[in-house]
Design a protein that fits this description.
alpha/beta; Rossmann fold; 2 domains; 7-stranded parallel sheet; 6-stranded parallel sheet; about 40% helix
């Protein structure tokens, strides 16, 4: 049985491809982060979802240059390369599948030095520093959006997103998510406006970060219209997206693609420090389509958030015509290039 190493910062789509290859007889293993932040002791959603899929997970202690000033974090950069090299020598994989991000850099480069071919997938509209570097060592590059150098396959989508049917609710539903790990900045604004949104049902994915303890703050909100979760995955998150009249979110690659496909009304609060401002560029795709309101983080407060939600309700969104066969196209590409 041949082994494939999966790694990268955008694990949702990567995991769908890994599971599809596992079903075809490949031995898939994962290099990722067990914890999402430096001081966080909670398991990352990446670790939880990958291990729940029965895929062996290796905690790669890699570091990044971009916006990193802590010397202890910078030490992780050479350590990540050494660890990746040791793991690759141990596992002897037939190939590496990268879904971008700084975590994939040492794995792809060490693989290249060992003669292990890699395929990389670019999720965002614009390449970040890590993906630009990875592309120099990858055998093939797959793209979500047209315009770059590579083959356009779209974004690997969870089956639940394509199959789920919306439920009827007594009140309009707002689904709020700061990404799989939650967003402390967004959470703080949301906690202040629950009473002002009494005409809505609110489903809030808070995250489980042990440093900020936002989950404990959510538990103290006593409102009949407010439901909180540390994490929603699989069919539960797909159902929340399908049911929502308005989705309030960061603007990562996956959520933007899914919301564009579903034709949802959105309020995006892009992460301002994302590489090459990629989250703003992601959000602008749906803003230009008439589906989204962009609320810059520096202007985020309880007043502007309530106003943005009200403005989003007046939008007349349309579902975008996006590719939905990325999983099968990625599987075919990987099996053609890695043998």
């Amino acid at each position: 049985m041949k082994t494939l190493v999966f790694t990268g910062g955008h694990h949702t789509g990567a995991l769908e491809v890994a599971k599809a290859l596992k079903e075809k007889g490949w031995n898939t293993v994962w290099f990722g982060h067990k914890h999402s932040m430096w001081n966080d002791t909670s398991h990352s959603s990446e670790y939880r979802e990958v291990t729940e899929s029965g895929i062996v997970f290796y905690n790669l202690l890699a570091g990044k240059f971009h916006h990193t000033y802590n010397p202890l974090k910078l030490i992780r950069i050479p350590f990540g390369f050494i660890q990746a090299l040791c793991l690759l020598l141990l596992l002897k994989p037939a190939g590496i599948v990268s879904f971008g991000g700084y975590l994939a850099v040492p794995t792809v480069i060490m693989g290249w030095l060992l003669g292990i071919p890699s395929i990389t997938h670019e999720q965002t509209v614009t390449q970040g520093w890590a993906n630009k570097l990875i592309a120099l060592f990858a055998k093939k590059t797959a793209l979500t959006w047209p315009g770059g150098k590579g083959v356009v396959v779209g974004l690997p989508l969870r089956k639940e997103i394509l199959d789920v049917k919306p439920h009827v609710h007594k009140k309009p539903l707002i689904f709020i998510t700061g990404g799989k790990q939650g967003s402390h900045v967004l959470n703080m604004a949301v906690f202040k406006i629950v009473e002002k949104l009494s005409d809505y049902e609110i489903v809030h994915q808070v995250g489980s970060n042990s440093e900020f303890k936002d989950l404990e703050k959510a538990k103290n909100i006593k409102a009949d219209n407010y439901k909180y979760h540390d994490f929603l995955g699989g069919v539960d998150q797909a159902q929340a997206l399908a049911d929502a009249e308005v989705v309030v979110s960061r603007s990562g690659a996956h959520i933007v693609y899914e919301l564009g496909l579903l034709g949802k009304k959105c309020v995006f609060v892009p992460i301002p420090w994302s590489s090459h401002n990629e989250q703003l560029k992601n959000a602008q795709i749906l803003e230009k389509a008439g589906n989204a309101i962009i609320l810059p983080q520096e202007k985020l407060n309880e007043v502007t958030l309530v106003d943005a939600i009200a403005r989003a309700r007046k939008l007349k969104p349309k579902a975008l015509e996006l590719k939905t066969e990325a999983i099968s196209e990625m599987v075919a590409l990987i099996e053609h290039e890695i043998n």
